[in-house]
Amino acid sequence: IGNTVLHILVLQPNKTFACHMYSLILSYDRNKEGPGSLELIPNNEGLSPFKLAGVEGNTVMFQYLMQKRKQNLWSFGPLSTVLYDITEIDSWAEDQSFLELIVSTKKREARQILDLTPVKELVSLKWNMYGRPYFCFLALFYILYMVCFTMCCVYRPLKPRTGNRTSSRDNTVYVQKMLQESYVAYEDELRLVGELITVIGAVVILVLEIPDILRVGAAKYFGQTILGGPFHIIVITYACMILVTMVMRLTSTTGEVVPMSFALVLGWCNVMYFARGFQMLGPFTIMIQKMIFGDLMRFCWLMAVVILGFASAFYIIFQTENPENLGQFYNYPMSLFTTFELFLTIIDGPANYDVDLPFMYSVVYFAFAIIATLLMLNLLIAMMGDTHWRVAHEQDELWRAQVVATTVMLERKLPRCLWPRSGICGREFGLGDRWYLRIEDRVDPNKHKMMRYTEAFKVQDRDNYDKGSEKLETNGDTLCKKEMSALSLSRSTSRTSSHRGWEILRRNT
C-alpha cells in the first residue's frame, strides 16, 4: 500500500505537497536501506518511483529524490564536492535503463531531465570518453563497408548480349553472367572477397537488430525518431536486399539489378544516421525525418491522385500519335513517369515543333501547370516551412536525446571490456556497493545575495498589497472609486519600493 501511494504521489500535479507526503511516508518505512524499501519496489510496468518520475517528466520530484541520494564529500569556501547515487540512472547494469526510458517516452517534459544534475554530467562523461570515439569508428567502418559493396556492384559479372533485338527501342548490350561464368578470372576472385564481406556485414546487421526488436517491440523500435526508427527500417531492408541478391546470384536468376539498386540507395542513405554524432549535422537529420514522415507523407497522397489523373489524360491524348516524334507518353508507365517529372518541374513540357500537337494537350497541360506547379508545390513549401519553425525550437533538445539513445545503444552492443562502468564504487567511501558520480560544484555568494534582495522586494510588495486590500474592505460605500484609487496606490508604492530595492542592490554591487 505504501509503495502504491508513493507511485501516486509522483503523478500528483501539486509537486510541493507530493514531496512532503513522500517524505512523510518514507519516515514510517522500517526497511529504509534494505532490499524491502518502499522506494525499490517496482509497479506492474517495472518502474520504481524514481524511474516513474523520470518517465512522467516530473522534474521537481526527480530533483527531490536526487537530493536525498547525494552525499556531501567535502566543502571549502565556495567549492564543494558531492557524490550522486547513479545506481538506477546508469544503464551499465540495468535491464530497463533510466536513460533509455527517458529518451523513449513521448513526453517532452521527460527530456528536460537530461539537463539536470547528475544526468547531464553522466551522459557527458559516457559520450566523451567512450561514446563519441566508438561512434566515429563505427561510422568510418560503415563507410568503408559501403565503398566495398559499391565496387562489387559496379564490377558485377556481365557479358555481351548475343540475342537479336525484338524492338527498335531495345538498347541492351550486356546481360548477367551465369554462376559458372562469374568467378573465373583473378578480378572475379577479388570481387568474390568483397561480396563475402558484404554478405557477412548484412548478416551481422540482422543479428544485431533483431534482438532489440524483440526486446523493445516493433512499434516502439521503428516508430520513434529519437531511437532512430526510420534508419532501423532502412538498414534492415538493406540487409534483406543483400541476401536476396545473393540468392539470385547463386541460382543464376536474372534481374539481380533490382535488389542490388535498392540496396545501394538504402545503404548510402543510412550514412545519415551517423550524422547524429555531430552537433553541426545532427539537428538537420531530425528536421529531415520530421518533414519526410510528417508533411511529405501526407502530400504524397495528394500528389499521387493528381499525377494519376493527368498521366491518364496525357496517355489518351498521345495514344494515336507516332511515338518516334513524341516518345514521352508512348506507353502508360512512361506517361506516369513523365508526369511525375513535370509535376516537380524537372523537365519542361514535351513539345516537338516539327509536328502538330493535339489541341487538348495544350488545355490539359495548362491546367496541370496551374494545379501542380503554382498551387501544390507552394503548398508543400509552406508546410515544410511551418514544420521547420516548430522543430527548430526543440531540435537541440532532440539532438541531445539522440546522443543519449546512441550512447545507451553502444553500451549495450559493445563488450564490457571495451566499456567499463562509469563512476566510483561506494566502498571507497564506506557507502556500500552502490555507484556514485563525483561532481564539483562552485557556490556563488553573489547569487545568494541576489536571491535575498529579491525575496525582500517580494515581501515589501506583498505588504503594500495587503494594506491596500484592508483599505478596500473598510471603505465599502464608495467601492468603485476606492478600488481604482487603492489599486493605483498599491502600484505606485510597489513601484517605489522596487525602485528603492534596486538602488540598494546597485550600491552593494
Automatic annotation (TrEMBL):
GO BP of this protein: calcium ion import across plasma membrane
Keyword entries, A-Z: ANK repeat, Membrane, Metal-binding, Phosphoprotein, Repeat, Transmembrane, Transmembrane helix
InterPro entries linked: Ankyrin_rpt-contain_sf, Ion_trans_dom, TRPV, TRPV5, TRPV5/TRPV6
Pfam families: Ion_trans
Transmembrane segments annotated in the record for this chain: 134-158, 192-210, 231-251, 257-275, 296-318, 359-381
Membrane topology: Multi-pass membrane protein
GO MF entries: calcium channel activity; metal ion binding
GO CC annotation: plasma membrane
Keyword Methyltransferase (UniProt): no
Domain Ion transport: 135-394
Locations listed in the record: Membrane
PANTHER family, A to Z: TRANSIENT RECEPTOR POTENTIAL CATION CHANNEL SUBFAMILY V MEMBER 6, TRANSIENT RECEPTOR POTENTIAL ION CHANNEL PROTEIN
Full protein name: TRPV5 protein
Organism name: Emberiza fucata
